[in-house]
Request: fold
Amino acid sequence: MNTTYHATEQGYYGEFGGAFIPEMLYPNVEELRQRYLAIMEEPAFQSEFQALLTDYVGRPTPLYFAERLSKKYNTRIYLKREDLCHTGAHKINNTIGQVLLAKRLGKKRIIAETGAGQHGVATATVCALMGLECIVYMGEIDIQRQAPNVARMKMLGAEVRPATSGSKTLKDATNEAIRDWINNPVDTYYIIGSVVGPHPYPDMVARFQSVISAEIQPQLFEKEGRKNPDYVIACVGGGSNAAGAFYHFLDDSNVQLIAVEAAGKGIDSGESAATSTLGKTGIIHGSKTLLMQSEDGQITEPYSISAGLDYPGIGPLHAHLFTSGRAEFAAATDNEAMQAGLELCKTEGIIPAIESAHALAVLEQRQFGTNDIVVINLSGRGDKDLNTYISYFGL
Amino acid sequence: MNRITQKLQENKKILSLYFTAGYPGLNDTVPIIQSLETSGVDMIEIGLPFSDPLADGPTIQASSTEALENGMTTERLFDQLKDIRKTVQIPLLIMGYFNPILQYGLANFCRKCAEIGIDGLIIPDLPIAVYETDYQTIFEQNGLLNIFLITPQTSEERILHIDKISSGFIYMVSSASVTGSQNSFGKEQENYFKKIAGMDLKNPQIVGFGIGNRETFLQATQHQKGAIIGSAFVNFLKKNPIESIPDFIKPIV
Reply:
């Protein structure tokens, strides 16, 4: 029997996934479940999606052999340059896909949640491109922390609505977006930014992001004469860039997958976002997965220096990769990530997003073989993080 | 016979009240229940607070946050309710999101409810299919009714299925909204109420969301068996002492 790490028809990855949603959301989520695969397979959809990825996003992104970094760590390191995508991160692969889907479902109004603002910007961008109304929910605290991205969304014509409930961060912005969808079930489409939420979102977002690993294969073949690397490393908050980077390697056990979570100030410090270590099985935003919660089942607030990684859950795919042992889960502290980020600036002339710097931090933690091919998904660029870099290093 | 089923056989319109356990004060749960019963309420939904109540509007969210800050937990709620049947006769339901119940252990949770004398559960984010395959037997063994929701967007086919697997009543969400987001009913809802009444379902329906006073109660119960007041009551508790609960209830019944 072939084992597969992809979603079942009901959206389960092992015991994780499903659609644990109130009845008010059922018609919309069910419509999406019934139609997403058929729409995504339509030739007209595919050609429109591919054309936008090429001409608008700037794909394929390079698979870059990082020579100086490789020399330093005595292994063969390739960087998948998602940081070169339009808007600065992989997030737009997904928003392009979902906005095209929303149009085919006849929806006129787009809502989204955002933490650091990258998904919000990517959503506002595609809504501007398509001429659709766009409302982005963002935690009140994140609005203060991420002012430049708030301004970008506004310039792109989106309305940014503060989430003032709970901890006023990403999970609350997600709650508010879901409530908006409950209140506007007919004309509205909800673009979720990661491989989280009720089925079919985790599978759908993974499919849109799978362009990352789909490109790695021929690119690596051209450079190394083989399609599959020995290792793929990606950071995981909700896990969309990792899902995309792992996707076409999931069922090939010769490729070792390493997911890197944010340890924050240390896994046991009480200020961490290392969900696989600190979480337990539960329900968050309509999905059964691993999540950080109190003994009583109240969802707790994670911490990371990187706003894109402080989500209290992980996508159900990743929960399954963790519990099944298919992927190795590592964790990088704030400091390890910041140092790795700065190192990439100095060795390769690339300023990475702090999220992506967590993936780079693995290079200090373990030794890879001299001939191993290690692909690190550089999910985003660090422009948005300049203030954090400046204050962290006193630049 | 289950107290809910029995109550629904009475020849009257049912008034059900929701409140969040642990709000406004941690130990207000029992006094609120007792006062609601003596004021003439027919049935009570005790809200088990959750950090992330997706289907609730600002009023119930805020009461949940405050209840958790007050120290409410699943265990503490059960402890508060352990002698409730010595003083209270009307049907009692617990309404809560699935995660806290899952962490307590659904089987343990149901057993505890049965011991206390809880009659039913409303778990908005427990999917029907999961209930049927994994949990139905446990509910039945503990004499608990599981109450399902329908909304104006629920298809007729799905309503019929929900009717088939339901016992007690169907929780009819009055409009596409989270709790507490409106305060009167229009033509659209009137038509929806009529349509559902005309479906000849085996389970009576109780309308929730948007009922806050006598006028909306009468509108909601014109075609349906009963109505649930939630946010309006939680708001009342925010501003008024527990002793004044009869002032809220009496004008409605």
Observations:
- Residues 103 and 109 of chain B are 9 Å apart (CA to CA).
